[in-house]
Hints:
Layout: H1 8-22, E1 46-51, E2 55-57, E3 63-71, E4 82-90, E5 93-108, E6 111-126, E7 131-138, E8 145-152, E9 174-178, H2 182-187, E10 192-194, E11 197-199, H3 201-207, E12 212-217, H4 236-248, E13 252-257, H5 280-300, E14 307-310, H6 328-345, E15 350-355, H7 361-373, E16 380-384, H8 387-390, H9 393-406, E17 410-415, H10 420-427, E18 435-441, H11 459-471
Parallel strand pairs: 2-8, 9-12, 9-18, 12-13, 13-14, 14-15, 15-16, 16-17, 17-18
Antiparallel strand pairs: 1-3, 3-6, 4-6, 4-7, 5-6, 7-8, 10-11
Helix pairs in contact: 5-6, 9-10
Amino acid sequence: xxxxxxxxxxxxxxxxxxxxxxxxxxxxxxxxxxxxxxxxxxxxxxxxxxxxxxxxxxxxxxxxxxxxxxxxxxxxxxxxxxxxxxxxxxxxxxxxxxxxxxxxxxxxxxxxxxxxxxxxxxxxxxxxxxxxxxxxxxxxxxxxxxxxxxxxxxxxxxxxxxxxxxxxxxxxxxxxxxxxxxxxxxxxxxxxxxxxxxxxxxxxxxxxxxxxxxxxxxxxxxxxxxxxxxxxxxxxxxxxxxxxxxxxxxxxxxxxxxxxxxxxxxxxxxxxxxxxxxxxxxxxxxxxxxxxxxxxxxxxxxxxxxxxxxxxxxxxxxxxxxxxxxxxxxxxxxxxxxxxxxxxxxxxxxxxxxxxxxxxxxxxxxxxxxxxxxxxxxxxxxxxxxxxxxxxxxxxxxxxxxxxxxxxxxxxxxxxxxxxxxxxxxxxxxxxxxxxxxxxxxxxxxxxxxxxxxxxxxxxxxxxxxxxxxxxxxx
Length: 475
């Protein structure tokens, strides 16, 4: 996937997928907010929240647009659905306006109620306090929609280095996939096949147009509160083993540092347990040393990553609390330690900064402007794009086009799942020669996978991706 995705639901969905795998696929339909029998198509099932900003300036003036929509169990909008909903805000913000509703009324200072027909647009206004605002919309018998918005005060920017950096260019056209779950699937006996012929998942993917693989890595995932207690999947040893297979299959390799023992995304960027209690100077050294160690061990076995993400979906920061988005100077310094660690071992490796803002152009600009002001060196802007949380394909297209014109770096989709043709048409047609390509999140096992649940290749593998590869000259 982390991949994406802006809401608590996305984080819970990733966790739910892991639980599914641990139960040997015994549970086939688990919703992130609990187990319920899916409602039939066309029947209201959920309140979908799409925020167009999840970072606001705490100046009492900044505003954020949030799209609220009633959807069915298939994710389709139900324009004629009439639902009584309750809006609730926890934190320093207020609802400024709500469009397209009837009987909107205030219940308390933080709670409002309205009759929706299909959905509405909400404008939030920030207060003056730094922190986190939780916004949710509830209705009887429907899954709740929610999001978190960080309210910040950026302060004066201090550069991390006075050196001038010219971003390196990715010359490949990237048709990639994050398949970090592969060792877990194989450990449970899952086999893969292509039109009835058994084979290695990586080699099958390579034969059908994929040329790049992304792997996520956690510091100590075997910790009791880690990503993979006791088993340690997605640790350095597992990563090194899969990296060998990637190179043996003739593919390139993107390494996704989470800098955490657990999932890292916009709602959580938990510091590794081994770094808890360190002062900022020691923390920077730990991050640098860890990066160097991972890179060196990969290089020593002949599998140095071709590209590296310094953090995963870091638009709200990383290595909290030191690197929260409210501490922009500290965040920039931590990113810089990661960049230095990568380049100390492999100077040619491409550096991506990954943000979960596929369609959120104002917030993407806020993050990148602040990182650029602090002179953080990097090469590629990576975006997560899940329509439910990151807007329409048009939002994605417009955002990527604007970022390509505004910044020196190339732009790509670092995570997606749905709308495979549409997303890749956008990703490969970014203006100004800034297109790189895409990475689909966990297509072996989640959502619209390229194999079915028994490991057999399907039409996404056999038809869709070969067509995309051919259309855009992926080699």
